[in-house]
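Lab meeting prep.
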Amino acid sequence: MSKTARSNLEAAIRRCYSTWGERYYDDYYASDSAYPPIHTDIVRDLLQKEAAGSLLDAGCGPASMLRDLALPGLERYGFDMTPEMVDEARRVLGDQGLPPERVWQGSVLDAAAFAASSDTPAGGFDAAICFGVLPHIPTEADAEVIAHLRDALAPGGMVAVEARNELFGLFTLNRYSRELFRDRLIREEALIETAKTPSEREALRAALESLDARFRTDLPPLRGGYADEPGYDEVLSRTHNPFELRAQAEAAGFEDVRTLFYHYHALPPMLEAESPALFRRASLAMEDPEDWRGHFMASAFILVARKPG
């Protein structure tokens, strides 16, 4: 990835999140209308089982998770690329007694950002988490971020990385499904090249149009910004295949790699309006990080792995 491309990408993402600092936690973690933060519960359980003494949150936002991970004996650190998020994180964690140097500004694409504080553990962190970040990372940079997380850990340390689940598109029946079917499964461009005659190309075009008719390609609505900043769907916001991400972690040398799923949907999301209370109740009842149905019915997953020690 060129320096110019990276600079442009990071500038767009900073603008996207620049107005979210003071409202992000309330909107997505504490609001009655928001889906409960199941992922925080999963991470808390992982940290307790690890008896981790130090934690780095790479892309911590306004301390969305760190504020709720005040576990006994756990030293918390975090960094984020957006200044407004860093300011809010310092304010929130400061109220919990953490010094401001525990939170700093930095990018997950910069190896130096993972140890920019003056008091980070010399031997590496016992655990590192990275949530809400990978969707904004270009495909070619995934391995770089995974390597940076690995290098920030102490030997035997644990990493938990969140991603949006690409395979959820097999269940949603919306524009994500169209993208998954045509770009990733069918691989439309390669298929078109196999058509030998004009009649075959026309038949293929008609077949693909018929396929599109099966999906609600107008859903979900594109998310814009609050003011004049770009919205979430107006910057890079991609999904990840859990099988491919697992393979990347293993290629980076991680061990004990596993996938945990969360934010289940009892029905395709477009049907939620038929009975919102039932949909929410049934979806929450499904929450089991290790249920195989999570590959298709959960919109997000957490890749958990260990650095060899």
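Slide two material, second protein:
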Amino acid sequence: MSTAPLLDVRRLRAGHGASVVLEDLSFGMGVEAVGIVGRNGMGKTTLCDTLVGFLPVTDGEILLGGEDVSGRAPEKIAGAGIAYVPQGRRLFPSLTVDEHLAMLAGRTRGKRWTPEAVYDLFPRLAQRKRHGGAALSGGEQQMLAVGRALLLNGRLIVMDEPSEGLAPTIVDVLVDAVHRLVDEGVAVLVVEQNLRAAVRMAPRQLVMVSGRIEAEFTGDELLTRPDLQRRYLGVGADDGAHR
């Protein structure tokens, strides 16, 4: 990781209306994969929505490459370099795979990520390019959601629960994709309930407790220490690896 963080979140405060969810939240990351784990209700999705501009920042800063992007509209944050793969995928049921990617294809000429590059990363999508979003399996939908985000050619991709409801073979595909992105210079922030999937995607894990980053561990530490799983995730050794 470089000395200056690509993403530097400083004393962030945000929430829903008068309800404060994130309070004094800080962390930094470079061109790497970083996981954020924690019990339900700790503010993980709120953090994602705040980073990409869907929720307003009431205090603190979000610096991307040293530039403060907090308070900008979502499209301005996307233009600055943060792409989002939301929980639930949010695809258009009636649009085909090709049509989803075509919506952003005009901005990709001469850039690393084009629809053709997405099909190279996810060959299954190339086989299903004429199928509508509603006709895709959950795994195919998630590949398409990732591919759509890649077409923004950002510096950081935020993924909220990317492995949710997916078969192990599809999780393998996503893990390989995350590693490839980092190797190519794209940072990935992964919010996950599935601890084993989170650790496979990101060796560095941040734990959220009550709207703050409470602790940081390596993935191996979290997987091999039941006491940490019980303390921070509320699960035992046997089921903690599957959250």
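Talking points for slide two:
DSSP finds eleven helices and ten strands in the chain.
The longest strand covers residues 19-29.
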